[in-house]
Amino acid sequence: MALRALALLGDQPDLTLVLCLAGPARRARPYAQLTARLITAAGFNIMRQAAPYRAQHRPLPFSRRFDDQFARVARWRLENQEESASPGR
Q1: In terms of DSSP bridges, do strands 16-21 and 3-8 run parallel, antiparallel, or are they unpaired?
Q2: What pTM, to 2 d.p., does this model score?
Q3: Higher pLDDT, 86 or 38
Q4: Are the beta carbons of 31 and 56 closer than 8 angstroms?
Q5: Angle at 79 between CA 55 and CA 72, to 5 degrees
Q6: What confidence score (pLDDT) does residue 20 get?
Q7: Distance in angstroms (rounded) separating the CA atoms of residues 83 and 4
Q8: CB 44 within 8 A of CB 72
Q9: What is the end-to-end Cα distance of the chain in Å, rounded?
Q10: More confident residue, 46 or 74
C-alpha cells in the first residue's frame, strides 16, 4: 500500500493538494492543515481526522456494503448546521 500525494502550486496563495491515501492507518491531518479545501470520501477514520477542519472539509460519500457513508455525511451536515446556528461559536 502506498501514499501518493501531488501538490499543485500556482501563483495563488492557497495550496491545491490532490491526495490519494491507500492502506490502513494513513494520516491525513498533516496534509489537511495545508489546504484551503479538503475533499475526501466519508469513511469513519477520515471524517474523524478531518473534524478540526470542518469549515474547509467536503466529504463525498461512497456506497459501501458495511459502512453507510451517506448517513455519516447527513449526520455531519446536521452537526455543522447546529454548530453554526449556536450563538457564541
Answers
A1: antiparallel
A2: 0.66
A3: 38
A4: no
A5: 95
A6: 59
A7: 34
A8: yes
A9: 40
A10: 74
Place of cell 456494503: 65
Among 60, 8, 64, smallest CA distance to 36 is for: 8
pLDDT at 33: 75
β-pair partners for 3: 21
Name residue 20's amino acid: C
Is the pLDDT at 44 greater than 60? The verdict is: yes
Grid coordinates representing 37 are 479545501
| d(C-alpha 40, C-alpha 61), whole Å | 8
pLDDT tens per residue across span 50-83: 888 888 888 999 999 999 999 999 999 999 887 7
Write down the number of H helices and E strands in the chain.
Answer: 3, 4
| CA angle, residues 53, 3, 11, in degrees to nearest 5 | 60
